[in-house]
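Saturday, quiet lab. Running sequence design on the structure tokens for the scaffold JK sent over.
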């Protein structure tokens, strides 16, 4: 069976649909008892900034419905400059933030699909390392990182809280 999902750069016209998905993720994290994303971040201006900087990507189904959103950033992440632990490489890296999956309808495996789909974009852009972080209690994302071969590197502090940091080296 052919995969009918596609990943494309987000456009400002996608903002409302993306924001709906982000709000679902905020609510899901709240229901799971997490403090992640419960303080007004991310918000529509953060997502609009992602889009205007070319960082925002959306996953679409065959009917062009937005299944998920992710920010893929090819710039130094200030929070990653200091780590309690060690990154596995010193090479330039891509950074993934704000991955959120549509809960209506929820499609199992979308976060894994997106994390896989951004890898060739990184390599084509000359980046052979991806760094990510998440809350200690974000079991879903921790499972995705493990499944896709991300290596735990230590803790970074993002917006005042410790987060688990991971890196994956991509082959050419």
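Result came back. Writing it out in full:
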């Amino acid at each position: 069976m052919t995969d009918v999902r596609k990943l494309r750069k987000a456009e400002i016209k996608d903002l409302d649909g993306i924001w709906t998905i982000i709000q679902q993720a905020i609510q899901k994290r709240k229901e799971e008892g997490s403090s992640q994303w419960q303080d007004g971040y991310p918000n529509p201006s953060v997502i609009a900034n992602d889009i205007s900087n070319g960082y925002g990507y959306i996953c679409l189904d065959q009917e062009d419905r937005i299944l998920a959103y992710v920010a893929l950033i090819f710039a130094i992440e200030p929070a990653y400059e200091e780590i309690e632990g060690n990154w596995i490489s010193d090479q330039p890296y891509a950074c993934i933030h704000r991955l959120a999956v549509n809960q209506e309808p929820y499609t199992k495996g979308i976060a894994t699909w997106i994390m896989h789909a951004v890898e060739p974009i990184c390599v084509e852009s000359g980046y052979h390392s991806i760094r990510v972080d998440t809350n200690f209690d974000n079991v879903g994302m921790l499972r995705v990182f493990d499944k896709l071969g991300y290596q735990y590197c230590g803790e970074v502090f993002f917006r005042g809280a410790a987060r688990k940091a991971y890196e994956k080296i991509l082959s050419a």
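Notes for JK: The longest helix spans residues 15-31. The mean pLDDT is 94. Ask whether to fix the surface positions before the next round.
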